[in-house]
Amino acid sequence: MGQNAGMSLRALIVFLVVLNLGIAAWWLSRSDTAPAVVEDAPSGIARLQLLSERPGSRPAPAPVAEATALPPETKAAAEAVPPPAAPERCVSFGPFADAAALAAAQTALRPGALRLRTRQTQTGGERGWRVYLPAAADRAAANANADKLKAAGFADLMVVGDGAEANSIALGRFSGEARAQQHAAALRAAGFEAKAEALGEGRIARWVDVAIQADTDLAAARRASGAAQSRTIDCAGLR
């Protein structure tokens, strides 16, 4: 009986020793890195995934601009530059004997004109310039105009009583065109239809000065205006 108990105790000790050795061997052989734990997302919700985790998911390279493309600011500046102005020439058509011929010439030349003006010159012996208000319907109307002129500060005047210019108002004579035109302009600014006209024994010649494109058919323009002459003038004076 005592012998059997001793054998059982030895067998138990040997078993425990073997068991401890096995546990020690298993512990030494296990990996130090714990397996990654992947938690399943709730049903219906996709798991977040890094871009680098997706197969073949390298970012696309940025497009390379063509070498010939202009920067937006350079292109805008280039488009903002106005095209060069077409070459022009300036010509005076005339002379025209009366106002009706002058008006007809303006009508014919205006469509092709870049700029246009009219002027008049005195041929023969010039004796100065006059400023006047054209004839009114009757003497009463002329006197009423004279009163308005005086009230506006233009007291140097005379109502013409008879002749071809009866009921007109003379507003002064001047030795040169510049002063006459200045006085007429002041009267027009005050609301009166004043006119400046050259005086003399010669006749008045009327002209139309125009700026036209350089390739305009000058002969055709002259025929259309009814002018006897066309003269090239300086464009600096036609602004």
What does this structure look like?
This protein has 239 residues and is α+β, with helices and mostly antiparallel strands. Among the domains are: 86-123 and 203-239, Alpha-Beta Plaits (2-Layer Sandwich), CATH 3.30.70.1070; 125-201, Alpha-Beta Plaits, CATH 3.30.70.1070. It is 34% helix and 23% strand. It contains 6 helices and 8 strands. The chain has helices at residues 2-29, 72-80, 99-109, 139-151, 177-189, 218-225; strands at 88-96, 115-122, 126-133, 158-159, 169-174, 195-200, 204-213, 229-233. A 4-stranded antiparallel beta sheet has the order 2-7-1-8, covered by helices on one side. The radius of gyration is 54 Å and the shape is rod-shaped. The N and C termini lie far apart (145 Å).
